[in-house]
Amino acid sequence: MSEYELADVIASYSVAAMTAMTLYLTAVTAYLVAAFSAGARLSRAQVVIVNALFVFVSGFFLYGTAGYFYRQLQYVHELRLLAPNHHLTLNIETIGFIASVEFLGIIASLYFMWSIRHPRSE
C-alpha cells in the first residue's frame, strides 16, 4: 500500500473506533438514566433483563472500540516502515487504557443500578 492508502485506512479505522466509543457512551448513558429514573421500581426479572442487555451491548461496543483501534495499530506499524519520521501516537498501551476505562464504566454502571435498588437507610 502507498503512504496515502495507509493513512486513509488508518483514518477509517480511527473513525470506526470513535463511533464504537460514541455508541458505548450512548448505551451507558441510557442505562444510567434508566437506572436513576426507574431502577427502584423494576422487578428482579426486569433488572436481570436490563442488566444482561446492557452488559451485552456495552461489551460489544467495548470489543468494537478495542478491535478497531488494534486493527488501526497494525496499519500504523506499516506506515512507520514507509515513513519513519512521522509521529504516530497510537500504541497498545493506549488501546489497553481505553478498553480498561470502558470496562470500569460497565462495572461502575452496574454498581450504580445496585445502589439505586439498595439505598442505604440512615
From TrEMBL:
It comes from the Bacteria. Keywords: Membrane, Transmembrane, Transmembrane helix. The chain crosses the membrane at residues 12-36, 48-70, 90-114. This is Uncharacterized protein. It comes from Halioglobus maricola.
